[in-house]
Structure formats: structure tokens, C-alpha cells
Amino acid sequence: MKDVITIKEIARQLNVSPSTVSRALQNHPRISAQTRDAVHALADQLKYSPSTIARNLQRGRTGVIGMVLPEIRENFFSEVINGVEELAFEHHITVALYQSHDRFDREKQILTMLASNRVDGVLLSVAKETQQIHHIQELIDRQIPLVLFDRIPPHIAAHQVECNMEKGAYEATKWLARRGHRRIALLNGPHALAASEERYRGYIKALLEEGLPVENVLIKRIDLTAQETVLKMNQLLSSPIRPDAVLAFNDYVALDAMQICRNYGLVVNRDIAFVSFANLPLNTYLEHPPLASVEQHPYQIGYMAAEILLKVLNGKIAPDDWQKVILEPELVVREQNEVL
Q: For residue 223, what are the contacts with CB-CB under 8 A and spacing of at least 6?
């Protein structure tokens, strides 16, 4: 392997100090044009590449931000990553990506490791098992900049970026009610997720405004696994009050539930309508996707979360000047998929 060319080597060959070479490479006005030209010429000749690590260490940085999310295989979180990566790439920041796989213990271990490695900051979407926030508060107490996104625990002072899930559920439920559906079920997420409670509030508000009864038998909590979705959808279809529409936590839940409906001989979007969250791209290729999906703008969530974090790191936002960004949802309707 060839020796790595350093500032010291350039300084030795030009018989100047390393600090002079460093300033010349940055085109410092105190360095003469002759010296600057000589330094740049030799640097090009030797194929010198500045050390990002050394530069970051001089600034007290690592140049790395940690990103912790439940599952990378979910399209929603993949799009969030795209938003984060876009801005990070522009600013020469490395993103260390970790998955909690929706486990509290794993999430806790990851945050401890990131804190020990002194990453510059952390972007976090909590696991569905997360009910305690001591590990998150510890990160804040250690003055490691943190931005929470999408899945945000309640009652925590931190930078936050999310979509208004209560409004999304409200608009989706109203849309179903105004199309004549009277028994609208809710396949919701676990209690631990604040996003589940937001969906529930929007759903209930819409039912009451439309003069529809709140039937507890039509409200099911699931752990977001396919197995749990199958179990709870079977319960809904076996109930004396069978739903004529379902609002699902996300498109994955909707697709699993729709398959159970087919097993009962029901024609999806004729005998029972579906609306869900996430607006997965794969819906475009399905013969009978949900009639509508709530678009949560994951790319924008990721980009804005990274933007807030970088502003904190660059001193443009005070660490405790908590920023809270709430994006407006969009109900994407696919009426052409209704079966007559």
C-alpha cells in the first residue's frame, strides 16, 4: 500500500510549516499567492486528499450522526432515510443507521452505544415496545443533539418532526362516512405508540361529527404483526356487528386484513371498503388496493429532521430551543379501484 500523503509531508518537501500548508489549502488571505500556488500544485501532484476525520476532530466533531428506526424494510422508513441521506450527503455527514426491530431493549442498547461513541447527534423513531423514556432523556442530558421523528413518545422535551395523524384519521373516517359507510372499524396500533392514540382521537371525532355510534366491538388494537392482524380481522368479521369499512393503521395492516376478507368470500372495496395510512408505492400495482391512503410525507419528515439536527450542530438553533414540525397529511383517493 502507498503511504498516505499528509500535510506534514507537503510541508517537509516545501520547507514550510504544516500550519502554513493547512492555511494555504484553505486559501487563507495571510498566505502569499506564490506559497498558495506552490502548496496546491504539490498537493495535486502527490494526490493529497484532506482527512475528513482530522478536520472533524479539530472542530470537536466525529462527522457522524446516528439514525435509529424500527424497520428499514418498511417503505415508509426507507423514504425517511432517503430524506435524511439527501441532506447528509450535501453536508458531507456520515449516517450510521440502526434498526431497533421494534424492541425496547435493542433501542436502549443502540442509544447507549451511540452516546459512548460520541456521535454528533441522533435521529430517533421509537420502537412499538418503548413505554419508558429514561434512555432517551439520558441522551438529552448528555447534551447529544436529538431529533425525534414519526413515532414520538409523549411528554418529552426534544426536537420533533411528524405528520398530523389525528387529522389524517379524522379525514379518512369522514370520507368513509360521507360515502355511506355506517359501521367503520378501526384496526389500530399498540397503546404504547402515541401515533395510535392520535389515530384513535381522529377516528372518534369523525364518528361523533357524522352522528355514528362508537362501537367498541369495531375497535381493535394490534401489535402490527401479520398474525395479530389476521386474528383481529377474523374477530371483526365474526362479530354480530360486521364492519362495512375499515380504517387500518397502515397499508401493510390493510393488505393482511383484506386477504382475510377474501377468505370469507367478501369482495374488497364492494362488500367492505378499506382506507389506510402510508400510501405505499406498491398500491399502484395492486388490482384492489385500499380505496384511499393517508400520505404521511416520509421523505419530507426525514429531510426536515436532518435539517433541524444540522442547524443545532452548526449553532443556528439553540440545543434547548425545541423545534416541533407537524406536516399536514394528504388523503390520496383511488376511487377507480372501487368494485361495483
A: 128, 189, 190
The H or E element containing residue 332 is: strand 330-333
What band does 339 get if pLDDT is binned at 50, 70 and 90? very low
pTM (global) more than 0.85: no
The pLDDT of residue 1 is 42
Cα(126)–Cα(124) distance, integer angstroms: 6
CA dist., res. 194 & res. 198, Å (int): 6
**What are the pLDDT digits (tens) for 289-303?**
999 999 999 999 999
Sign of the alpha-carbon torsion through 64, 280, 105, 196: positive
**DSSP string of 126-184, one letter each residue:** --TT----HHHHHHHHTT--EEEESS--SS--SEEEEE-HHHHHHHHHHHHHHTT---E
User: Residue 337: which of 294, 296, 293, 278 has the closest Cα?
Assistant: 293
Contact of 64 with 94, CB cutoff 8 Å: yes
Residue 288: how many other CB atoms lie within 10 Å:
17
| Maximum Cα–Cα distance across the chain | 90
